[in-house]
Amino acid sequence: MVPADRFVAALNAQIGNELAAHNQYLACAIHYDAMTMPQMAAFFYHQAVEERAHAMMMVRYLLDTDSEVVIPGVDAPQSSFSDVVAPVALALEQEKRVTEQVNALLRIAREESDFASEQFLQWFIKEQVEEVATMSDLLAVVTRNQDDLEDIEEYVAREGSDLDTDPTAPRIAGARTGTS
User: Fold this and answer.
1) Treating both helix axes as pointing N-terminal to C-terminal, what angle do 115-144 and 86-111 enclose, rounded to 10 degrees?
2) Which end of the chain has fewer surrounding CB within 10 Å, N or C?
3) Model-level pTM?
4) Angle in degrees, CA 121, 21, 51, rounded to 5
5) In which band, very low, low, confident or very high, does the pLDDT at 91 lie, cut at 50, 70 and 90?
6) Is 162 left (phi over 0), alpha (psi -120 to 50) or beta?
7) Any idea what DSSP says for residue 171?
8) Other C-beta atoms within 10 Å of 41: how many?
């Protein structure tokens, strides 16, 4: 059951998009780390790891379906920001763009009657709903409290990233599964 060629090409491009998102979240984390905002920094470092994991889930799917994996190059992320709000606003736009990209992948899978690839994408659809909602909420809080960094830090400490592993998530290439 090999995915359609169009889908493989688009998924390889999406691997690059996910790795670019990883780099962008690293740049956001470093910005907050430099501002001595450890909660925001930790939140964005965690987001970076998640984006890399998404890329590696896509790699694993291509490997599992005997498809070619091509890791594309990515542009440098934006690394300087004017204030505390700008990285979160950028992150929300990034999540909206990734949602559009995942939806485009789903359209290709449907057009190609590639049912396995369509099923693979279902988790990413759900994940993007959560990611956009999280960044929307964070942007509202950061915008409202931009003059009180401690309130932002307290919010993130209280509401921060869910570090639990999702048992429904696709496998990650290179991750240990706990079995030999």
Assistant:
1) 160
2) C
3) 0.92
4) 55
5) very high
6) beta
7) P
8) 20
What's the alpha-carbon Rg for the chain, to the nearest Å? 17
SS3 110: helix
Share of the chain above pLDDT 90, in %: 87
Domains in the chain with CATH codes: 5-159 (1.20.1260.10)
Residue 175 phi, psi dihedral angles, 5° rounding: -85, 145
Place of tokens 């970076």: 48
- Amino acid at the residue 69: V
The Cα–Cα gap between 87 and 130 comes to 18
Q: Where would I find the H helices in 4-85?
A: 5-34, 38-64
Question: Residue 12 is encoded by which pair of tokens?
Answer: 């390889």
Say whether pLDDT at 177 is over 80. no
Contact (CB, 8 A) for 65 and 11? no
Residue 116 CA to residue 73 CA, distance in Å, equals 27
- The tokens describing 20, both together, are 């670019």
Query: Three-class SS of residue 116?
Result: helix
Residue carrying the six token digits 């890791």: 71
